[in-house]
Specification:
The complex is a heterodimer of chains A (about 210) and B (about 200). Chain A is mostly helical. Chain A is about 70% helix and about 5% strand. Chain A contains 10 helices and 4 strands. Chain B has about 200 residues and is of the alpha+beta class. A 6-stranded antiparallel sheet of chain B has the order 1-2-3-4-5-6. In chain B, strands 7-8 form a two-stranded parallel sheet. The chains are: A mainly alpha (about 210), B alpha+beta (about 200).
Chain lengths: ~210, ~200
């Protein structure tokens, strides 16, 4: 099982990454990635929901009739998302404020249902949980990369810390005479589209090279 | 029982829905009180921020709020009042349509309604990172002690006038709709405050 778990990890983080190979969960990848803090909280929420949805779907897979399995999966996903929302509202209200509508939108993330349908429906519970958690981690990795570039060039900050105060890198030496000009395109969803395209291009190129050896 | 049969499917659907929704209701009733408290804390914190009253940490909010703020109903509108250094400032809760949903905020003004003392956001669901930036300090700080135009209005994001002029603040780049709608809300409540406090100007 350890070997299987290792293989799942490798697939979900790299060779079968939900974002750049399966092209799932792209909607939120375009929307939330102009800011690293929002991206990380959103990703952590998604990791939790994907993991536990997979676990629950796997536990229930033998008693659910096939024809209603999708509606049950949707119910389970919504259940966990509402739990996350309520817990954040009650105990971490500031994070809840920062994330606003995105918590509810985790429900519509294709990765969760994709993994529940493709993996949890035919695998044991613990492996399914692991598959869900690593799928979420694969999603998080790519999104953090996109968000890093977007926040850096769009707002000139990383996790809210100014990188180019007065046009100087970390305030040390002048990098942008006349101050750092924000790249407005980086704040808008299309930039995530271009960045994701570039990431898919790079990842596929590396994979093809490795394949030839 | 036949697992493909209608009866089995119906029973399973019912049982699963029941179990999950039951757990949700339990969780909800367990945290409902905490959520209510957070909401009222949010409101008080926003009112203090709008008046520019400093507080360190959430624990202090309740005490300072009760000491500093009085409320009064003027023509069916709840007005929050704060007296400081001989000046009286007034605040109301604003509510209006943003780009995606309702924005709830607080605006505080001086007694003659010639300047904004401050604003604070209670809740909003604008696009995070774009319109959602109305809740960022740089945006809200623009309103701190901002004189109004002669007409008693504020423009949020003007293509021509610059922000050193009275009644002009920067909008949010890439969120012109939220900026415009927020401006409409602010001006609507400035007009309301003017009608509530105007004329007598002494805040009696």
């Amino acid at each position: 099982m350890a070997a299987k778990a290792l293989q799942i990890t490798k697939e979900n983080l790299w060779t079968n990454n939900p974002i750049f190979i399966q092209i799932l969960g792209i909607c939120s990848a375009l929307a939330v990635t102009n800011n690293l803090i929002n991206t990380s909280i959103m990703s952590i929420g998604l990791i939790f929901v994907t993991g536990f949805t997979n676990l629950t779907v796997s536990l229930l897979k033998n008693i659910i009739p096939r024809k209603i399995r999708m509606i049950v999966q949707t119910l389970i996903i919504a259940f966990y998302v509402i739990i996350v929302d309520m817990v954040l509202r009650a105990f971490l209200p500031d994070i809840n404020r920062a994330l606003g509508p995105y918590i509810g939108l985790i429900i519509t993330n294709c990765i969760i249902m994709g993994r529940a349908e493709a993996f949890a429906g035919g695998n044991p519970p613990v492996l399914s949980l692991w598959d869900g958690l690593t799928s979420g981690a694969g999603y998080m990795g790519v999104l953090m990369l996109v968000a890093f570039v977007r926040e850096l060039f769009g707002s000139g900050t990383v996790f809210g810390f100014a990188v180019f105060p007065d046009g100087r890198l970390f305030g040390l030496f002048t990098l942008f005479p006349g101050g750092f000009e924000h790249w407005i395109i980086m704040l808008m969803p299309p930039s995530a589209f271009f960045l994701l395209g570039i990431i898919i291009w790079i990842a596929k190129t590396i994979m093809l090279k490795n394949g030839k050896k | 029982m036949n697992k493909k049969g209608l009866l089995y499917t119906a029973i399973i659907t019912f049982v699963i829905s029941f179990v999950f929704i039951f757990i949700l209701s339990l969780t909800n009733s367990a945290v409902a009180q905490q959520i209510e408290q957070n909401k009222s804390l949010d409101r008080q914190r926003a009112i203090l921020s709008a008046f520019g009253i400093a507080f360190a940490g959430n624990e202090q909010v309740y005490g300072i709020y009760n000491k500093e703020i009085t409320t009064k109903k003027i023509k069916d509108t709840e007005v929050y009042i704060h007296k400081q250094n001989g000046e009286t400032h007034y605040a109301v809760i604003m509510q209006g349509q943003g780009l995606w949903s309702t924005i709830t905020a607080v605006i505080a003004v001086n007694s003659a309604v010639t300047k904004v003392v401050g604003i604070a956001i209670i809740s909003q669901n604008e696009t995070p990172g774009l319109g959602g930036r109305i809740d960022e300090a740089w945006f809200k700080n623009q309103f701190r002690n901002k004189p109004l135009t002669a007409q008693g209005t504020i423009t949020v994001g003007s293509p021509t006038a610059d922000t050193s002029q009275a009644g002009v603040v920067d909008g949010i780049t890439a969120a012109s709709q939220t900026s415009r709608l927020f401006g409409i809300i602010v001006n609507k409540y400035l007009a309301l405050l003017h009608s509530l406090l105007g004329g007598s100007n002494n805040g009696s």
